[in-house]
Design a protein that fits this description.
Elements: E1 11-14, H1 22-41, E2 51-60, E3 63-71, H2 84-96, E4 100-106, E5 109-117
Parallel strand pairs: 1-2
Antiparallel strand pairs: 2-3, 3-5, 4-5
Helix pairs in contact: 1-2
Length: 118
């Protein structure tokens, strides 16, 4: 598995087994891909001690919350401009699916919450 140390995984993934329709599944996949790419280039996964925690839960029968949290990487500062990847994530999650996308630029690592109607 990418980003694993010898016997210690750098990623922790937790959530119930759920089935998503095509549009929300693609939106979540695109968003997680963008977050992982950024983590590998600039965030937690660019440092040997960096870690990622991914959690999801059903807030109701039709509402999914996904949370991405980074720690142990370089110190984080809020961006001064919105990049292409963030614009794409917002367009897909917020505008096409009427979901929510929230970022927290914590010094110990970026955190992103995705809320979708499923």
């Amino acid at each position: 598995m990418p980003y694993c140390q010898q016997d210690d995984s750098r990623t922790q993934i937790n959530g119930p087994s759920i089935m998503l329709e095509q549009a929300p599944a693609q939106a979540v996949a695109l968003t997680l891909h963008e977050l992982a790419s950024n983590a590998a280039k600039y965030g937690a996964l660019s440092s040997p001690s960096g870690r990622i925690e991914l959690q999801w839960r059903l807030q109701s029968a039709s509402r999914l919350a996904v949370r991405w949290m980074e720690s142990g990487g370089p110190a984080v500062k809020p961006p001064t401009r919105q990049g292409f990847g963030t614009r794409v994530m917002e367009r897909v999650i917020c505008h096409q699916l009427n979901g929510e996308l929230r970022f927290e630029w914590r010094e110990q690592g970026v955190s992103c919450e995705i809320i979708l109607q499923i």
